[in-house]
Design goal:
The chain has about 210 residues and is an alpha+beta fold. The protein has helices at about 5-15, 25-35, 55-60, 100-120, 130-135, 135-145, 175-190; strands at about 40, 50, 160-165, 170-175, 190-200, 205-210. The chain folds into 2 domains: about 5-80, Arc Repressor Mutant, subunit A (Orthogonal Bundle), CATH 1.10.10; about 100-210, no CATH class. A 4-stranded antiparallel β-sheet has the order 3-4-6-5, covered by helices on one side. A two-stranded antiparallel sheet has the order 1-2.
Amino acid sequence: MTRPPTAAQRRVIDAADPVSGRLRGTEAQLATLVKYGLAFRHPRPPHDHFLTPAGHRIRETEPTEPQTSPPPPEPEAPAATGVFAARVGGEPEGAVASPARTREVHSAWQGLLELRRMTNPDGSTERPCGWERSHLVPAAALALEAAGHRPAGADGAGYRVRVTPQPEAVAVHEPDPEALRACAGTLERAGWQVGEYTEPRTRARYLLASPRRV
């Protein structure tokens, strides 16, 4: 794209799903973003539009020019549908499952696989991409939730994904040893390197996971 996006285009880009990059907007807006290489139309039904790596870069930067033009009427309000966030464990609704949530998680995971295909040099969907390495906690949590694991709720049961002092690793806590091992298997299948360790003070077992590069 040779010029910054317009105010309306920037709003569509900024409202994209933070994980999958799925877009909502008018057909004209989406077609224009595709034309400039900021979005692509998925070949499979329902043919949703997603940000390309260039589109993701636009969203992660501040606008380069003031958006002084009055906003045109928008037939759809992307923010009204809410913003998807992977459940890392400990959220008030963490243990609540619903068909709508299942659909959201499935869509986010498919979008992430598409992002892998587009951004990994060899087009591999079996290895984490750059976005995952820069968003370790939500990326690992999405892999777990998409595979059907239960995020920790008020009762304390379920997984929790947390940051660690290591630059490219997250910790996964799960009080049930069998469920912890299942989490390890899921992350390994999703392209993560996983090891199981013991917390020195509590003697609790936990996982240390990092995105595999090769």
